Write the structure tokens for this entry.
Amino acid sequence: MTIKQVLPVLTLVIASLACGAKKSEVVIENVVARKPPTGTNITAVFLTLKNNTGMDIALVGAHSDVANVTEVHESYNDNGIARMRRLEQIPIRAGGELVMQPGGFHIMLIDLKRELLENEQIPLKLSFSGYRTITVPATVKTMGGMAHH
Ligand SMILES: [Cu+2]
């Protein structure tokens, strides 16, 4: 076999291994904590979550050691005014995806205990109903315009 013949085979093997590892799992990616503007002690975390468990689950809570209070939030538009509210849970169907992004779902870090540094990784613990608790690293990044609380 030439290298040109081997490479596609290798790629397939690696792809199927990666899929195998993610089977029956909750997969969380792109976990970013917005670097709070100077003088503020509140910020939001965004992420993408894929429910590959084959069961309906729900995100029911979050915790991070860097904040005194961590809440699951949703941004919404109230007659042209951007507001947020706390959610008791966010259901994620079997095979479904939860996208947390500016203007929508997010995790709110309230009353930060210390400054967050650019590119620092902070641990974020996510609690579910129907699934085990997961801790993922959130990378602190400066992000463009989103309304404050
Ligand atoms: Cu919020």
